[in-house]
Structure formats: structure tokens, C-alpha cells
Design goal:
Helices cover 82% and strands 0% of the residues. It has 417 residues and is an all-alpha fold. The protein starts with a helix and ends with a helix. Keywords: Membrane, Nitrate assimilation, Transmembrane, Transmembrane helix, Transport.
Length: 417
Amino acid sequence: MGIKGFLKSGHTPTLFSAFLYFDVSFMIWVLLGPLSVVIMNDFQMNEAQKASLVSLPILGGAILRLILGWLADYIGPKKTAQLGMLVTVIPLVWGWLFANHLSELYIVALLLGVSGASFAAALPLASRWYPPQYQGLAMGIAGAGNSGTVFTTLFANRIAQYYGDWSIVFGFALIPLVITFIVFTLFAKDSPNQPDPKTFIDYKNVLKQRDTWLFCVFYSVTFGGFVGMSSYLTIFFFTQYGLDPVRAADFTTICVIAGSFFRPIGGWLADRFGGVRMLLCLYTIIGFMFAAISFLPSLDKVIILLFIVMMSLGMGNGSVFQLVPQRFKEEIGMITGIVGAAGGIGGYFLPKVLGNLKLVTGSFSSGFLALSTVSFLCMLLLVVAQKQWKKSWMISERREQTLYNPNHMSKTRRFVE
């Protein structure tokens, strides 16, 4: 055990390549979030249209994640990732040189979802090189690529402001993408331990289980909340508080950092105190914070509230995926793809809720109240599910007790209580 054992057990160049690919892909995925407040100077958009523009990449990522996940099983994660990067060139070049109408920009936004689907290739590419005792660390390092959002919120609007042109940002995004493609091609390798491809029947059997849909709901609120807020917050700061595009994106960066870097802490705390307990606490905090934000307080107060919300959403992501392997030991690959896609769908709807309710009511208050209500409903749903989980998971653990140490029953109670 330890860092030396970890480094010897897998393939470090592949792990780094997976992280780099994920980081750059995530940066490109949310490109339209901060840029939207600059783009609206060229295209007349109402609140609903702004929300559609920033949410379409998230929807594309959710849909294409399933496709890239299927490809990763059949042609391998490396080739899948390379294909994903090549396809990502299309929306970047289109947005840079040819997107002259809002309808074209919508297509560009949807195609940017290819970069968001990088989850499906980056994570299995890294994790398949490592034995079970190092899976968490390997997945954590590769998954830390969601910090790529920070680069977008920090630099996209600054580049657009410096050159006086938002479209050139798409051109600049090609530079790290090309570098990543070269590094990835040279250093990444598929693990020799590739699992057999899953069939349609395998997915069908997983989708028949109620808990699959429960985890989809829970993750659609935590991850969907994180990525949806990351994409929409610049619009919120710009519209509600009259900040210029760069300052609005800077405040978004502060909130994004909270969600990105507290995710592993959420997983660690869930291991220590129990995944359900953590989620019950986090959904409650998120619900109260969204309710407080609905009063649209002063800028300094709302930043504190949003920081707490994004921190809680990030920790919630880690807590959900602390529970998932306890319930789906044999189907972890499939369930990760399904639940991950559900998270993207949640991220698609969040900006739509805020934007459309702002258009109808003239205020962001109703949108944040709706998000608060959803959080509290998830808390109640979790309370109900917990009662069934205590019985079914413990029965399953008794049948497999030879796989666990003597105190495995107390571990199970900690996971589900």
C-alpha cells in the first residue's frame, strides 16, 4: 500500500493522459457558460434562449456518454477518446469561423457535448490499469479533470474581451485540444485487462431495478446541480447584479472551485459517516441555501450562499458514488454510465428551470425556490429508500459474508444508515 505501491501497480503515463484528456474536455464542455454573456451582444436572446444555449452542451454530453461508453467496451477507451477529441474539433472550428446565426450556435452547443462525454472513456482507461485497492485513488486522479471548468471561467471572457471577439475563444480552445491529442496518442495505453462488452440485455436487466432509477434521481440533483450551476452562474451574476462579463465569470470560478475540490472530501466523509447520512445532510443544506438565495440578497451574501451550495453539490457527487458500489458490485461499469448520463440530464434542466421561470415571472426567485423544493423532495425520497435498503442490502451482505472481514455487518449499517 502507499504511493509507491500505487505507482507500481498501474500505468502512470496512461493515468496522466486520462486526467489531461478529461481536464481539457471538461474545459471545452462548459465553454458557452461564461461566454454566453458576451455572445448575447451579437444575438438578441431572451432568458429562455440563454438557458438553452448553455444547457445544450450538457444534454449532448448526457446522450453521447452512453454512446462513448458503448464504444469504449467495443474498441477500447483509448481509441474512443481519440475519436472523441477528433469530433470535438468540429464544433470548435464551426464556432470559431462559421457560426453566424443563433440556430447554428445551438448546433455547436449540442456538439460540444462530445467533450462532456469524455467521462465514458477517461475513467475506464485509467481505472482498468489498477487493482481494486487503488481504484478509488485512480478514479479520483482521473476524475479531478472536472477542474477544467475553472480554466474556462477564468480565461474565456478575458480572451474575448482582449480580442473583442467571442468566436476566437473557440479557436484558442483548439490549442490545448491538439496538444492533448498528441500527448494522449503517445503515452496512453489500453489495459490488457479489458472486460467483455456488455449486451443490451445486461443494460435492460440493470434498468429494471428500482435502485438504478433512485440513484439516477439523486445524481441528477448533485452532479446535475453542479454542472448546471457552473454553466448558468455567469448569466445569473451578469443579469441580476449587473456585473461585467469578466467579473461575473470570476465569481463563478469561486463557486466552481468549491464544487470541484470538495467532491473527494464528500466521498471520504461518506466512507466515515455513511453515504445516506451524508446525502440527507447535504440535501437539507442545499435546500435551505437555495431557499435563501431565492430572496436575492446582496452580492457578498449570495456568493457565500452559492459557495456553500456548490460545495454541498460537489460533496454530494462523492457521496452518491460511495453508495453505488455497495448496491451494484457486479454491474458497476454499467451503472456508472447510466447514473452519469442521468447527472447530465439534470444539468440540462437546471438552467432551463432558472431561465424559463425568470422569463415568465421576471425574477430568479421562483427558479431557486423550485430547486430548493427538488432538494427537499430528494431528502424525503432518500428517507423512504433507506428503510428498504437496510433490509435488502443486509440480506445480500449475509449471503456474501465470506468476502468481508468479521465486522462487515457494522460496515453495511454505516453505508446505509
